[in-house]
């Protein structure tokens, strides 16, 4: 079985400043990452074999904070960076909207906001290719990637088999330090129906560790089971006829 956990970075300073820069985590972002670290250290819910991080500062700092909880070295990978802004680095939200909003919807996937910037098509191709490489290189292992909301978006396109040649009609709002969990295993039900082995989405936007961020009550992670009891593992007994 292969498990893929994609973790979005904590709140970044550029999220607060509404720019495309990469000055690192905000104080809140640091606290969010620390809460995730504490959760993972106590719950033991992710027994990872490899920890990969984007080289953008906000993701790198998040990975460095949570790494002790996973007891793994960090492998930094440029290819799981967010959509690259090129010369639009440090562009304000107002400037971005002024350039991007007037573009016709059908042209948006191919539009670059500035020289050197990636279009949506270029970004999703890079992200999808990189995710495919990572899961191939670490087949049958548990992988954690600390990266960006755009990489999470790309995982949906990749595993759901959606086109990246058009701007998505469905948008995902991935929360800071949230966990997206995909897994792939041999499935007897799919085999019986002669279906290919597919990736399963176990959870999306799991940011439960942020529930006690400003609360006087702390989530007792040590008292919470590492795996939920869903009943899916229990065989279904036939119903006796009356």
Within the largest sheet, what's the order of strands?
3-2-4-1-5-6
The overall pLDDT, averaged over residues, is 91
- Biggest sheet: strands, sense, closure? 6 strands, mixed
Query: At the first level of CATH, what is the class?
Result: Alpha Beta
What oligomeric state do these chains adopt? single chain
CATH level-two architecture = 3-Layer(aba) Sandwich
Shape: globular
Say what the CATH topology is. Answer: Rossmann fold
* Rg calculated over all Cα atoms: 20 Å
Secondary structure: helix percent: 25-40%
CATH superfamily: Phosphoglycerate mutase-like
The number of E-state strands comes to 6
H/E topology pattern: EHHEHEHHEHEHE
Tell me the count of domains.
Answer: 1
Number of helices: 7
Distance between the termini: 41 Å
pLDDT under 50 segments (min length 5)? none
Structural class by sheet pairing and helices: alpha/beta
Short description:
The protein contains seven helices and six strands; from the N terminus they run E-H-H-E-H-E-H-H-E-H-E-H-E.
3D architecture notes:
By secondary structure, the chain is of the alpha/beta class. It has one domain: 3-Layer(aba) Sandwich (Rossmann fold), CATH 3.40.50. Helices cover 33% and strands 15% of the residues. The protein has 7 helices and 6 strands, in the order βααβαβααβαβαβ. It has helices spanning 13-17, 27-43, 57-70, 93-100, 120-137, 149-160, 188-192, and strands spanning 2-8, 50-54, 74-77, 142-147, 179-184, 199-206. A 6-stranded mixed β-sheet has the order 3-2-4-1-5-6. Helix 5 crosses helix 6 (149-160). The longest helix is centred in the middle third of the chain and has 18 residues, at 120-137. The chain is globular, with a radius of gyration of 20 Å. The termini are far apart.
């Amino acid at each position: 079985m292969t498990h893929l956990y994609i973790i979005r970075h904590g709140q970044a300073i550029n999220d607060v400043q509404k720019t495309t820069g990469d000055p690192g985590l905000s104080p809140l972002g640091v606290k969010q990452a620390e809460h995730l670290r504490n959760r993972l250290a106590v719950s033991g819910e992710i027994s990872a074999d490899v920890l990969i991080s984007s080289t953008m500062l906000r993701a790198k700092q998040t990975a460095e904070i949570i790494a002790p909880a996973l007891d793994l070295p960090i492998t930094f990978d440029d290819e799981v960076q967010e959509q690259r802004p090129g010369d639009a680095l440090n562009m304000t939200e107002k400037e971005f909207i002024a350039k991007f909003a007037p573009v016709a919807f059908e042209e948006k996937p191919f539009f670059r906001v500035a020289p050197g910037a990636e279009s949506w098509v270029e970004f999703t191709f890079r992200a999808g290719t990189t995710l495919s490489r990572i899961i191939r290189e670490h087949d049958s292992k548990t992988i954690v990637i600390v990266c960006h909301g755009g990489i999470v978006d790309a995982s949906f396109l990749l595993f759901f088999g959606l086109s990246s040649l058009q701007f998505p009609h469905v948008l995902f709002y991935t929360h800071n330090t949230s966990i997206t969990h995909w897994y792939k295993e041999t499935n007897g039900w799919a085999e019986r129906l002669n279906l290919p082995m597919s990736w399963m989405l176990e959870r999306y936007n799991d940011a439960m560790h942020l529930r006690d961020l400003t609360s006087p009550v702390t989530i007792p992670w040590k008292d919470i089971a590492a795996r939920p009891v869903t009943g899916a593992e229990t065989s279904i007994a036939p119903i006796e006829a009356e």
